[in-house]
Amino acid sequence: MKFPQATILGKDIYVIDFHIEATVEQVACDLRAYETNSLLRAIADLGNQIYKANSDFLAYRKILVNDSFLLFAALFVLNHSSSTNGIDAGKSDLQVLFRKLWYLYEEGTTEELTPDEICLRIAYRQFPFQGALLNGFARAIYIYKNIWSNREQMVGKDIFQETLGLTFDQLFFHVFLCLSLDNTYFCRLSPDALAKVSETYDVSVSTDSEEAFLRWASRDRAGILAYAGSLDNALEKFPIINIGVVPNGPKEELFLIINKNCLYLKISHYLYYDFIEKYSGGNGTNVFKEAYGYAFQDYVGRLLNAHLRSWKVISEVRYKKGRNSVDSVDWIVWRHDNLILIEVKQSSIFLRTKKTGSIDSYKQDCRKTLSKAFDQLQRTKADIEAGLFSELMFAKDVKSVEMVCVVADPLYFGNMLLPKLGEEHPSMHVINISDFEDLLDIQGNDQNLHCLLLKKGKRSKLRAMDFREYNIKLLKGVSRRSSQFLRNVFEEYFSELKHSDHA
Fold first, then answer.
1. Distance (Å, rounded) from C-alpha 319 to C-alpha 328?
2. b vs e for 16-43, b when ≥16 Cβ sit within 10 Å of the residue's Cβ?
3. Interacting residues of 26 by C-beta distance below 8 A, sequence separation 6+
4. DSSP classification of residue 232
5. pLDDT tops 60 at residue 186
6. Which residue, among 308, 436, 327, has the nearest Cα to 383 in the 3D structure?
7. How many angstroms separate the CA atoms of 238 and 228, rounded?
8. Between 209 and which of 170, 273, 440, 461 could a Cys-Cys bridge form, CB atoms 3.0 to 4.6 Å apart?
9. C-alpha closest to that of 304 among 325, 274, 278, 334
10. Which of 503, 479, 501 is nearest to 491 (CA)?
């Protein structure tokens, strides 16, 4: 079944026009016909189907639904419905209701915005849920489990205990338990059940760790509606709803996972912001952000060494330039007469810009976060080509140089919009970390990363693409795949949690 959608530089943007209009008041009135919790369950079930199908969207009858729309719909229900006596939404045809909710979801998205701003506004609502979310989950495991303990800036600090009240392993295990449920609801585990888990796996979970997890991931209706944080939708912060004790149900509180993919994002992406908030100091200082920058740089280096075994992978080089000592880019990758310069950044654009889509704000943010990376790439390239610095003479015979800025915080349409900032260069690429992981995986045993970058830069249409869509072209249409490196990380981590006598 085909659905209305726009395709911009290979990206699928879902836009719906059912030739129907609605007001908030009209849809709120329609909700009175349904029992509220049944509506929430119906929305959660659709999200669960998307999660299980590993898809970007789902066909509900003749209506397209995706994670972003379902989160909007769930929050709308929480804001405007409190019926306990209505009909069961799970047994109803919700097509008309969803058509009206789609209208409200899209209302104002394009009003008084330029085409570029429309792209940005939609991108940061829809794209975080696209792609292989397992990559982000496994990346978080690798960084916090394999790299973080070496960060000098955070010695003596257990950031998970200090911020969340539970350990790394406890948090990830509670998340995994939720994601592995066949349905979308659960009650607290009994102390005996938690003890059995601890006996089976090399992780000590308890009622205390479960409560800490629920404080991190869930709120009741009142808590969600009272949310005044920076995210537009409180359910992105709290994707589990405590719906309380329900009639004809278990005589204990019931929790509803409103969106499993959002829980995935919370552990892989939003967790970073929990730590940023916890360790924010005066005068803009943040000990966590400083430490994470080094950890992320280290992570990119480990990826390079794992995938480019026949290349020389060299970390940041310090060299004398006049009276000063200067640093090269973070990573220099070299083989024969081909060179790849890589600068790593953890930030791209800020939340305000993601919400508004403002191109002016986009430009300001990129000048603060990425322009220094571009300058560093160009400077290192020029200094290598000058052949004047002994520390860089190992690359004196290179003939082809590709420059890459790897970004932790996703930057959508970066290769399309950045040229408008004067950063256009066929050998300059911006790539999100998830796309970089995939690209390294795609090049495989050929280890032809340089060739793939060169090919992308030579054609203007390919150059303007984000790497996710370029990767899809290389894979001839396959849009969701996880990196083998990260699949191994995921599998090894959970196999190590098992006690040897249960292996």
1. 8
2. beeeeebeeeebeebbeebbbbbbbbbb
3. 100
4. S
5. yes
6. 327
7. 12
8. 170
9. 334
10. 503
Two tokens, residue 457: 């830069």
Global pTM value:
0.90
Distance in angstroms (rounded) separating the CA atoms of residues 140 and 129:
17
Residue reference for tokens 């929990």 = 274
Joined tokens for residue 249? 């149900």
Residue 32: strand, helix, or coil: coil
CB neighbourhood size of 477 (10 A): 6
Angle at 247 between CA 241 and CA 249, to 5 degrees: 75
Axis-axis angle for helices 67-80, 95-106 (nearest 10): 100
Mean of the per-residue pLDDT values for the chain?
87
Minimum mean pLDDT range among 22-26, 175-179, 411-415, 435-439: 411-415
Q: Please state, in angstroms and rounded to a whole number, the distance separating the CA atoms of residues 12 and 57.
A: 11
Q: What whole-number distance in Å separates Cα of residue 387 and Cα of residue 384?
A: 6
What's the CA gap between 269 and 468, in Å, rounded? 18
Give how far the C-alpha of residue 422 lies from the chain's centroid of Cα atoms, to the nearest Å. Answer: 28
Give the whole-angstrom CA distance, residue 232 versus residue 368: 24
pLDDT in tens, 187-233: 999 999 999 888 888 889 999 999 999 999 999 999 999 999 888 89
Are 312 and 321 spatial neighbours (Cβ–Cβ below 8 Å)?
Answer: no
- Range in 106-120, 137-151, 189-203, 372-386 with the lowest mean pLDDT: 106-120
Asked whether the beta carbons of 414 and 468 are under 8 A apart, the reply is: no
pLDDT digits (tens, 9 = 90+) for 449-472: 999 999 998 888 888 888 988 988
pLDDT tens for each residue of 294-317: 999 999 999 999 999 999 999 999
Q: How far apart are the first and last CA of the chain?
A: 44
pLDDT of residue 423 exceeding 70: no
209: exposed, middle or buried (Cβ count in 10 Å: 0-12, 13-18, 19+)? buried
Taken in order 233, 236, 237, 243, the sign of the CA dihedral is positive
**DSSP of 368-381, one letter per residue?**
HHTHHHHHHHHHHH
d(CA 209, CA 204): 9
- The span from the CA of 380 to the CA of 317, in Å, is 10
Amino acid identity, residue 242? N
Alpha-carbon distance 499 to 491, whole Å? 15
Q: What angle do CA 237, 240, 243 make, to 5 degrees?
A: 130
